[in-house]
Structure formats: structure tokens, C-alpha cells
Specification:
Elements: E1 2-3, E2 12-17, E3 20-30, H1 33-40, E4 52-60, E5 71-74, E6 80-82, E7 88-94, E8 97-104, E9 111-117, E10 121-123, H2 126-133, E11 138-141, H3 142-148, H4 153-157, E12 163-168, E13 171-176, E14 186-189, E15 192-194, H5 196-200, E16 207-213, E17 232-237
Parallel strand pairs: 14-17
Antiparallel strand pairs: 1-10, 2-3, 3-4, 3-10, 4-7, 5-6, 5-8, 8-9, 11-16, 12-13, 14-15, 16-17
């Protein structure tokens, strides 16, 4: 979910506010000077070493038309800007960490979006958000995982309806409630098929997002496989390439 190269639409979050909704696409940058300067359109000398930044695009959720002249602020700071005619806005030379983006546009209720700026990474959540907005499957964000504060990933997974914990010998595993005995989910780790043993031992504090599909009927094509009928669990780590 993170890469050292920019992506055209790195994050999407839909704000369903009042009778209209906003769609925000962001590239959250936490790069060394040369890369950050290039992506933010600045001279390398003007960017602080290891600084972070945000390049965003605001559009109407229903029509995808860009929204210009919207007011964009970072909560609890004095930083503010406006979107241009293409819906784009930029914040540069930011400290790494969690930021809250607040947006106000004429004809829309205020919207809020939380992002985590990580040193030396471009955060890529486009596909995660696209699948979440489809309404199929269950999704756990980093905020949910941190709030659960569990010792194992299995303990986080069983907070999802339709997922249960089965303990065999000296280990406990996640299993879909509707799956027959002996039918256990297929795991993907950072987009690649993984063994269940390796994936489920991933420490919760190393995970930034999880997708849970409880059967083949709700599993997207990119995660379909011979075992998808038993469910699919997709884990995205903070160090994903």
C-alpha cells in the first residue's frame, strides 16, 4: 500500500454530507528532499529534509466533476488553502504524523478526512478505498485496529460479524461462520497470496488495513482463487512495498 513512486489517485474517501457528497483523492507524501520537491513542484532547496506533503483532488461524488474554490484546512494548525479550477490543492513541508483535512465547499456540508504521513513513503489506498466503497466485504482501518488494542491479529478479525475463532491444539485461527468444518480462509499479505500461518502471525501494530471477504460471492476478482469459497482475508502492513 506504499510505494516510492507517485500514483495518480492514491486515496479516495467519499463524504456523504447532506444532499451532496464530496470525493477526495490524495497523494500523501513522506519523501526525501529530491522526491518531495519533484512531486510538489518545488525546488529541492525549498523543501525541508524528510518533510511530508499532501497533493489532493476534490470532486463531486456523484458526477466526479472537480470542485474549485473549496476551502481546505489542516485541523489544529494555521495552514489553509483553496482548490484550483481542477479541484487540486497542495500542502508542503509538513511534519510526519497524523493530519486531519477539513473541507468546506459551497453546496456541500463540511467534510473531514484523516491521513497519516509516513517518512519516506507515498501512501497508496486507492484500491482499498475503491473496494470498501463497493459495499462488499468488511474493512478494518488502522484506527479500528489501534482502538481494538489486541495482542493478536485473530483477536482483531473476530470483531467482524461472520468471523469466528477456532482453537486447534496450541493455536487459534479465524474461520468464517458459514464455512463448513475444515474450510479456512485464504490469506493475502500486501497484495500477494500468503500462507495462513505466516499471515495470521503478523503483529496488529504492523497492520494498517484489513479486508475480509466471507465467501466467493463477495470476493473481488483480484483475490479469487481455489480457496476463496472459504473466505479471503487481505492484510496490508505499514511496510508494504
Amino acid at each position: 500500500m506504499a510505494t516510492n513512486h507517485p500514483s495518480q489517485a492514491c486515496s479516495r474517501a467519499a463524504f456523504r454530507l447532506g444532499f451532496r457528497a464530496l470525493r477526495l483523492s490524495c497523494v500523501c507524501l513522506g519523501l526525501a528532499v529530491a522526491s518531495a520537491a519533484s512531486l510538489l513542484g518545488q525546488d529541492a532547496g525549498a523543501v525541508h529534509p524528510d518533510s511530508s506533503g499532501i497533493v489532493g483532488h476534490l470532486a463531486a461524488h456523484d458526477t466526479h466533476e472537480p470542485i474549485g474554490s473549496a476551502r481546505v484546512t489542516l485541523a489544529n494548525t494555521a495552514l489553509a488553502t483553496s482548490t484550483d479550477s481542477s479541484g487540486q490543492f497542495v500542502f508542503s513541508d509538513l511534519d510526519s504524523g497524523v493530519v486531519v483535512i477539513e473541507i468546506r465547499a459551497v453546496g456541500y456540508a463540511p467534510g473531514t478526512w484523516r491521513a497519516c504521513l509516513t517518512p519516506h513513503h507515498v501512501l497508496h489506498f486507492a484500491d482499498f478505498e475503491r473496494r470498501r466503497q463497493s459495499g462488499m466485504g468488511a474493512f478494518l482501518t488502522q484506527e479500528h485496529i489501534e482502538r481494538a488494542n489486541t495482542a493478536s491479529l485473530v483477536d482483531v478479525l473476530v470483531t467482524v460479524r461472520g468471523v469466528q475463532q477456532i482453537c486447534l491444539a496450541n493455536q487459534c485461527v479465524a474461520k468464517m461462520v458459514r464455512s463448513p468444518p475444515g474450510c479456512y480462509p485464504q490469506y493475502f499479505l500486501d497484495g500477494r497470496e500468503s500462507s495462513a500461518y505466516f499471515a495470521r502471525l503478523t503483529p496488529p501494530q504492523d497492520v494498517k488495513g484489513v479486508e475480509i471477504y466471507r465467501g466467493s460471492s463477495e470476493t473481488p476478482g483480484e483475490f479469487q482463487g481455489s480457496n476463496s469459497g472459504c473466505g479471503v482475508i487481505v492484510i496490508w502492513t505499514k511496510s508494504s512495498p
